[in-house]
Sequence to fold (126 residues):
Amino acid sequence: MNLKRMFPVFAIALGLVLAVATSGFKDKPANKDLSTYYFVYHPERGPASDPDNWDFTSDNSLCEGGGQSCKIRLTENHVNTMTSPVTIDASSEPGGNLPTVSGSGSNLVPDPSSSFYDLISDKDPE
Fold:
């Protein structure tokens, strides 16, 4: 067998094998085609870091929180759709709490730098 003639065939075959093997590892865009859910905050219940202080709402309009976050949008990755109504699943976060930062006064507001949130409505002014 002439190795010079077989080399291009082996190179093409190896290239095809590598192309097929690596095609499954391409990154998918974040949040693409994921369902989203809105939650409204009830400050009278307690801190914004507690998922129990946010209630699911079908109202997807933005709100005015007066310097305090009042509504968040989360993708299906961060909600429990097995409950009725839908609830926030913060089990992937430290202590099971929502990612927050200090806002005006002693208020905690959702952390705008966190990838946990898809949208924060009327976050505390920076």
About this structure: Residues 45 and 53 are 6 Å apart (CA to CA). Strands lie at 36-41, 54-57, 71-75, 79-80, 87-88, 100-102, 108-110, 119-121. The radius of gyration is 23 Å. The longest strand covers residues 36-41.
